[in-house]
Specification:
single chain, 19% strand, 40% helix, alpha+beta, 231 residues, PH-domain like
């Protein structure tokens, strides 16, 4: 009995190690899609309150890269769903034509596929051909050991402050634009003096990132080193 129990424990440890190792490799090799929300709502000090982009783990660092719109980019009013749809269709048409021109029809990329990871080929077309945005490394990029804790869900101040905005959305607003995010897509990283508010819309990748943080911070409650002394 003791042998069987030990064998089961060894097998579980081995499987857990393999899973964590696969997650670490994925985090290093992939550009994970994110939406980063700024700390403030004040439009006087910023043009946008959030940015799409990606994060990637490299050499002990959490690197955040944000898509900053080009100065001559065309903006549309979100209140007009018809204009938005036309802009989306034009962008899609431009992307498809560019991909066929540059890569050939046989190598066409599926624009509808969204696995939560940045496609380098699409990003290159958007930056260098369509010139929709430029990538900028966020000042919140940091060493992993600077992360003191994390909170999953819409409970931290930045996300919680948006609850009134979300509650006041009409059915028409939700039909046209959808909700800005769901609670389970939110995660807040706490540094010494700053906070990083991220939305990760891919559920599988969010689960992987949480496991990555749990293992990296050695935590049982979200706070760094809280598993010390726990067997």
């Amino acid at each position: 009995m003791a042998y069987r129990k030990s064998a089961v424990e060894i097998e579980e440890t081995y499987q857990n190690y393999n899973e964590i190792n696969e997650i670490y490799n994925f985090m290093r090799e992939s550009k994970i899609k994110i939406i980063k929300y700024n700390n403030t709502f004040d439009s006087a000090v910023q043009n946008l309150s959030s940015y799409e982009g990606f994060m990637q783990i490299e050499d002990g660092y959490l690197n955040l890269f944000l898509k900053k719109p080009q100065e001559k980019a065309k903006f549309v009013l979100e209140a007009d769903p018809k204009v938005i749809q036309e802009a989306k269709e034009l962008h899609r048409s431009n992307m498809e034509n560019l991909m066929i021109k540059l890569t050939g029809a046989q190598n066409k990329i599926d624009l509808d596929e969204d696995d939560g990871v940045i496609n380098d080929q699409i990003m290159d077309l958007e930056i260098n051909q369509l010139k929709l945005y430029k990538l900028q490394k966020s000042s919140l990029s940091c060493r992993l050991d600077r992360i003191k804790s994390f909170v999953v869900g819409g409970y931290s101040s930045r996300f919680w402050a948006m609850r009134k905005h979300i509650n006041m959305m009409t059915t028409k607003d939700m039909d046209n634009h959808g909700l800005p995010f769901y609670s389970w897509e939110c995660i807040t990283l706490y540094l010494e003096n700053r906070k990083i508010y991220l939305v990760i819309q891919n559920e599988t990748i969010m689960n992987m990132f949480i496991k990555f943080l749990i293992n990296t911070l050695q935590t049982v409650d979200g706070s760094k080193d809280s598993d010390i002394g726990i067997k």
